[in-house]
């Protein structure tokens, strides 16, 4: 089974781990999204990237994000304080929907679809 994704390369504003949610900080530059209110635009690929270098950001399709706490399949996913995925509260900006359940520290597949929870 194939997973069709759209990935773009953007400059990392800081060292970015893989499988974390990012937001734009300037034209062509991203940093960790660290709050549910941030406009998240994608999820870093598994490699992540170093500050000032290009990092792969998955902006469409299914991507893996590390869970900051327990996530239940079908939950809207937003950014936690560490850039990991968390269940979105009402009014949070969500990066997508969890396709499976996960515990803190595990990765969870997310269907990217930016929306407000």
Quick overview:
The protein has 117 residues and is mainly β. The protein has no helices and 10 strands.
In total, the number of domains comes to: 2
Oligomeric status of the shown chains?
single chain
What's the mean pLDDT score? 96
Instruction: Please state how the strands of the largest beta sheet are arranged side by side.
Output: 1-3-2-4-5
In whole angstroms, the N-to-C terminal distance is: 30 Å
> What would you call the structural class?
mainly beta
Topology (elements, then pairings):
Blueprint: E1 6-12, E2 21-26, E3 29-32, E4 42-44, E5 54-60, E6 62-66, E7 76-79, E8 85-87, E9 93-98, E10 107-116
Parallel strand pairs: 1-3
Antiparallel strand pairs: 1-5, 2-3, 2-4, 4-5, 6-10, 7-8, 7-9, 9-10
Q: How would you describe the overall organization of this protein?
A:
By secondary structure, this protein is an all-beta fold. It has two domains: 6-60, no CATH class; 63-116, no CATH class. The chain has strands at residues 6-12, 21-26, 29-32, 42-44, 54-60, 62-66, 76-79, 85-87, 93-98, 107-116. The strands form two sheets. It has a five-stranded mixed β-barrel. A hairpin with an 8-residue loop joins strand 9 (93-98) and strand 10. The radius of gyration is 13 Å and the shape is globular. This is DUF2190 family protein. Pfam families: Phage_cement_2 (PF09956). It comes from Candidatus Doriopsillibacter californiensis.
